[in-house]
Amino acid sequence: MTQLTLITRSGTHDVPVELNETVVAIAKKHKVTWGHACQRGLCAQCRTQVLEGASFLNEITSEEKLRLRKAERAEGFRLGCQIMIVEQGNVKLAHRPY
Ligand code: FES
User: Fold this and answer.
1) pLDDT digits over 8-18, tens only?
2) Locate the 2Fe-2S ferredoxin-type domain: which residues (predicted)?
């Protein structure tokens, strides 16, 4: 079974992959704290580093292009409220707010 691994300050949480749901929504559903405020790509409280499985995710959104620097994006940073898993596969994400 494919797995989504969420790494937060409180530890590592393995949850089932859910397609076309944002990471913020999935974390909330499983009671994993994944800071967020706006859910519109503005506040960056949900800043996330993709450690594994980038190819199973949606394309970087225009909100992420506006909010995150190019250098950050090159290091795998995205926004948890924008990331969705679109294809089954193992994905590992870390919550990395500023
Ligand atoms: S919740 Fe504000 S940018 Fe994601």
Assistant:
1) 999 999 999 99
2) 2-98
Task: Give the separation between CA 4 and CA 45, rounded to whole angstroms.
Answer: 20
Does pLDDT of 1 surpass 90?
no
User: pTM of the prediction?
Assistant: 0.96
Question: What is the CA(19)–ligand 1 centre distance, in A?
Answer: 19
Nearest-5° Cα angle at 16, 40 to 28: 40
Which domains are present in the chain? Answer: 3-95 (3.10.20.30)
Q: pLDDT value at position 72?
A: 98
CA dihedral (35, 82, 11, 75) in degrees, to 10, reads: -110
